[in-house]
Structure to design on (285 residues):
């Protein structure tokens, strides 16, 4: 993409302020920044801070300081998600009216018990649909709101459910197979009543559209979220950006860096006298 001026190019770095910026985050931020600047486009900073228990203003301040130290500049103010949780949830109203979501009171234990056997090749337990068919009127505080995926896919029967991927591991056009989506995604939780909660992939889909993001650049670990985001984009009439899932930075043992891998925190390298150029070399940029 470098060298090709794309003035319409808008991307973002969207960390959760739940811990220090480590090498993996730094790689993601620098790659998105570099791709935006090479394209003559915009680079935005978003704090995905909807997890009110774990997000802290001091982590946000530390992340911002590390990003500035790395030499990254972003366009416009930082966008924080936490003040908008209610607004994200309010946007589910048309889906509720269309019968595409339903309340669910199942616990993790209920779900495990209802699943006859572990499903092969599925990384998380797909919800067995116990509460499907419950009316919105039966919704109680604490109930989750689940997407009725089968109904949503029927509703979108004529839609072009696909996305363009430019990342190295999955490069090409990906068409979402409805049968596979039912098998592997299922009726995901979008929100939880009275708990100030919104699903990560929902808030992120809304923000990508609201901020005019044309290219989502993020780690390969989020590739599996893309089909559900594309389905939501179509349900809400939002555009689908181009996706670029990049390689993950791994430790010497080949494990991907944990959320709070203090040993690889940028702050630690800084304290040891590393320069931004050293960090770039370490992540292969
Ligand atoms: Zn349920």
């Amino acid at each position: 993409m470098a060298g090709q001026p794309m003035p319409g190019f808008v991307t973002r770095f969207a960390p959760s302020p739940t811990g220090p910026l480590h090498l993996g985050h730094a790689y993601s931020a620098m790659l998105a920044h570099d791709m935006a600047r090479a394209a003559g486009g915009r680079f935005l900073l978003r704090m995905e801070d909807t997890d009110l228990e774990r997000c802290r203003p001091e982590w946000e301040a530390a992340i911002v300081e590390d990003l500035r130290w790395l030499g990254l500049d972003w366009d416009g103010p930082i966008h924080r998600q936490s003040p908008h949780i209610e607004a994200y949830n309010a946007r589910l109203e048309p889906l509720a009216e269309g019968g595409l979501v339903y309340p669910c009171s199942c616990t993790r234990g209920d779900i495990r018990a209802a699943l006859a056997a572990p499903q092969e090749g599925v990384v998380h337990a797909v919800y067995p649909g116990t509460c499907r068919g419950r009316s919105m009127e039966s919704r109680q505080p604490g109930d989750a709101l689940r997407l009725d995926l089968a109904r949503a896919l029927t509703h979108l029967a004529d839609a072009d459910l696909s996305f363009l991927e430019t990342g190295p591991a999955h490069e090409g056009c990906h068409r979402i197979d409805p049968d596979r989506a039912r098998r592997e995604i299922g009726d995901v939780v979008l929100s939880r009543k009275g708990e100030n909660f919104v699903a990560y992939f929902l808030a992120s889909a809304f923000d990508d559209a609201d901020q005019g993001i044309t290219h989502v650049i993020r780690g390969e670990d989020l590739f599996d979220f893309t089909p559900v985001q594309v389905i939501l984009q179509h349900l809400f009439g939002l555009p689908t950006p181009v996706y670029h899932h990049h390689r993950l930075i791994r430790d010497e043992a080949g494990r991907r860096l944990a959320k709070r891998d203090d040993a690889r925190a940028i702050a630690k390298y800084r304290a040891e006298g590393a320069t931004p150029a050293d960090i770039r070399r370490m992540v292969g940029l």
